[in-house]
Structure formats: C-alpha cells, structure tokens
C-alpha cells in the first residue's frame, strides 16, 4: 500500500525559480527510501511538500490516498519532518518540555502527553537528560531531541533531512542507529542525504533528483554505478557493492 504519493508535483517560487517539475513518486508503507541529489536538486523542497510545509504550484500530495491539502493538521501529525538544523525545531526550556510541545498542541490529556514524552525520550536514549536545557546538548543530542519531538506525535512517516551534516563519527553512528531502529519498528523512513556511504546499505530504495526532476528511482544496488553522473559521490564497499558497506557492522 502506498502511504505517500506525489502526482505531477510542480513548485515554482515567487521569483520564478522552478524548484520541482512534474514529480511523480509513490512511497509504500514501511519503506526506507533515500532521496539524493546534488545541491539545488530540489530534495528539501520535495520533502517539505510531504507534510504541507510547502504547497505545490500544481499537482498534489496524497497521504494514504487522500490529498493532504484537505487536512494539513492530519498530515503534519502523521508525517514528521526532522530538519537539518535541529536548533530550528527546539522550542522548550527543557528537553522534556520541548518533546511535550507537539502533543500539547493536539490538546491531549496531560497523562497521555506525559506518557508520550517518556516513551519518545526512551526511544532516542535521552531519558536521563529530560531536565536539561536544550542549548547545552551536543549536536547529535539535539538531533535526537528533534527526533523525540517528532516521535511524540506518533507519526506514520518520519523524514530526516541531511541528518549527518556536521556530526563526528560517534554522532553519525548514534543517528544512523536511531534511523535504522525506527525503520525496524515499522516506521516509513524517508532520508534526504548526499552522504550515501552512511546509509545506503540500509535502504530499500534510492530516488535521485536533478534540477528539480526525478531522474532515477529503484534498487540501490542497481543504481549505485550511476550516481556520480548526477553529481553524487559514489560509495564504495569493500567488494565494490553497497551490501558490504555498512557503518553499523
């Protein structure tokens, strides 16, 4: 079953820049999809349409077969987007307050909010830091906090936009383990990245954008030899294939 779909999706900014052109893409429930492309290819613009942060100039996005434009609140509850700059998502005075922000805005009972906060912090390994001020966290911890805030909304789809940027090796491992764990627990994962070597071995599918168009879509093993032609660094496994190239081995 398709959980998300874009149909003839086109986005033109007010200055006339055509960021996306006729994107047709269907994502199945439970998939782990990587969206890649060089700078300016339209990756971030595309995923911001998936929960209604951006609205298309033409075309539409469907969530479980229903246009998200009919209920943006429902879309933003069920499609969680974790930005590259996690600081932009932090609003609480403490870690726990930050995670509670989304559920509180759903007008849930206090006990359910507290339960969701506890579960989300446990899921990302931040329970011990519940009373910390977010600005004191490391870069990796801030991204885990942003993920907890999304998890507390209990979304069906989780989108990570360039989650590895600026992280050291331990930080990358923390975030990658979290992403892979969420996928194993049944979440549909969409990962926007140009660093294929970090995550491609775990993905079911690779989608490549170029200049606002979807140019390739398929099995990562079949597409790995083509990525450099689209301005993306090719990852090399020990035996030349992505199946041997995992940071979690």
TrEMBL record:
UniProt superkingdom: Bacteria
SUPFAM superfamilies: P-loop containing nucleoside triphosphate hydrolases
Subcellular location: Cell membrane
EC number of this enzyme: 3.6.1.3
Residue intervals of the ABC transporter domain: 4-236
InterPro entries documented for this protein: AAA+_ATPase, ABC_transporter-like_ATP-bd, ABC_transpr_CbiO/EcfA_su, ECF_ABC_transporter_ATP-bd, P-loop_NTPase
Assigned GO CC terms: ATP-binding cassette (ABC) transporter complex
Major localisation: membrane
Entry-linked CDD domains: ABC_cobalt_CbiO_domain1 (cd03225)
Homology family: Belongs to the ABC transporter superfamily.
Name of this chain's protein: ABC transporter
The organism of origin for this protein: Acididesulfobacillus acetoxydans
């Amino acid at each position: 079953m398709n959980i998300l779909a874009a149909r003839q999706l086109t986005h033109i900014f007010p200055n006339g820049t055509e960021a996306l052109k006729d994107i047709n893409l269907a994502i199945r429930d439970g998939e782990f999809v990587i969206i890649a492309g060089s700078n300016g290819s339209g990756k971030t613009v595309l995923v911001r349409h998936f929960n209604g942060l951006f609205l298309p100039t033409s075309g539409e996005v469907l969530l479980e077969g229903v246009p998200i434009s009919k209920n943006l609140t429902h879309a933003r509850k069920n499609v969680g987007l974790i930005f590259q700059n996690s600081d932009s998502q932090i609003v609480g005075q403490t870690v726990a307050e930050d995670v509670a922000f989304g559920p509180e805005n759903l007008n849930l009972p206090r006990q359910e909010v507290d339960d969701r906060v506890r579960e989300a912090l446990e899921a990302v390994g931040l329970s011990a830091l519940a009373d910390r001020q977010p600005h004191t966290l490391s870069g990796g911890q801030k991204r885990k906090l942003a993920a907890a805030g999304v998890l507390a909304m209990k979304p069906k789809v989780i989108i990570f936009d360039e989650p590895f940027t600026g992280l050291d090796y331990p930080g990358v491992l923390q975030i990658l383990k979290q992403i892979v764990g969420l996928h194993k627990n049944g979440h549909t994962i969409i990962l926007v990245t140009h660093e294929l070597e970090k995550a491609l071995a775990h993905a079911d599918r690779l989608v490549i954008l170029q200049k606002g168009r979807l140019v390739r879509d398929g099995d990562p093993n079949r597409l790995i030899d083509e990525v450099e032609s689209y301005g993306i660094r090719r990852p090399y496994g020990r035996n030349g294939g992505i199946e041997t190239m995992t940071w979690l081995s």
